[in-house]
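I have been asked to look over a protein record a colleague put together. The record follows directly below this note.
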Amino acid sequence: MRVALVSEHADPRRGGAETAVCEMLACLAALGVEVTLVAAPGTAPAAADVRVLPIDSTAATRAGRSRAFRAAVERRLRAESFDVVHALSPCAGIDVYQPRGGTTRATIDGTLARHGPVTRAVRRLLRRFNARQRWLLHAEEQMLVGPQPPIVACVSQLVRRQLLSLGASPERLHVIFNGVSTEPMAELPARDAVRRSLKLDAGPMLLFVAHNFALKGLGELIRALALPDAPRDAHLLVAGRDRPGPYQRLARRLGLPARVHFLGASRPPAVLFAASDALIHPTWYDPCSRVVLEALSAGRPVVTTTLNGAAEAMTPDRHGVVIARPSDLNALACACGAVLAPTFAQACAADAPALRAQLSMQRHARELVTLYEEIISIRRSSAP
């Protein structure tokens, strides 16, 4: 089976979505799929068995580069021969569309949700001048409701609902729940040794991991930890690439500087989970957060929001707490205390082996291969 996977970029340093692409490519290749990554020049192969087909998309602006990439991909695909073409961004002539970041419209709405009505209206107006977003909105909606829409592989039910709201045909939507590399979570490093290496005292440790602190709710989390209902002895570990300065100042203003620790982005997830007791991910928008799936695989309870598709993997009152919105600070404060209870730790530890199988990227890749086989079978049966 020859599969082309179209992704303009596939660099894990750019974030979780592209890390997922690299893991997915490696797992598909391990299943015997002959995978070709169709990407911008300079993209390194995700695995030794993955061929990279570079597509030149030179242009002066980001919007121009995206348009040029799509046009060049469509020309090149007509000249190549693949059994299945699987694209992560809108493209004509593809078999599978997988919006790993959710739909463009939902992504825009999610990034605006944390602002007040006036700021939200102003920012929405300004986004009309964002040429790349305007083009992506049009290209995605045109592709989904066009005469030959692709099959859509949704990484969560949340993404499926987004697509239905755009008018996508329900029978074209397949939920293939997101996956992560779960093997590193099977054996975490020794907690005491990790805490000593991080120069942390003993006691309850909450973990926050993100590269966009504002979108993932770090400001709301720090404010919630200053409330009376929050666990008074708990510390917060903050990992990620974003700028810590504004949040360090917020912690100082609220009297929390000794309890909020900024670790940067250099530690592997397994080390962070070994040091912590629970993951707190009060996101304003996530189609299906990888870090939540990693935490569940590591046997750690989670606090997140209904705005995160990864909450679908959690059993309520067993794997953690799901609140409505990050702005409900009282609910967030109470949830942070609740997940430190021993009952949550015991349930998550007991369920972790099964969750690692359910949430693995290998399972995700197997379901994609099944979808590819169905597409090829239907095409062959309908051929003259």
Observations:
- The chain has two domains: 2-179+361-382, 183-358.
- The mean pLDDT is 91.
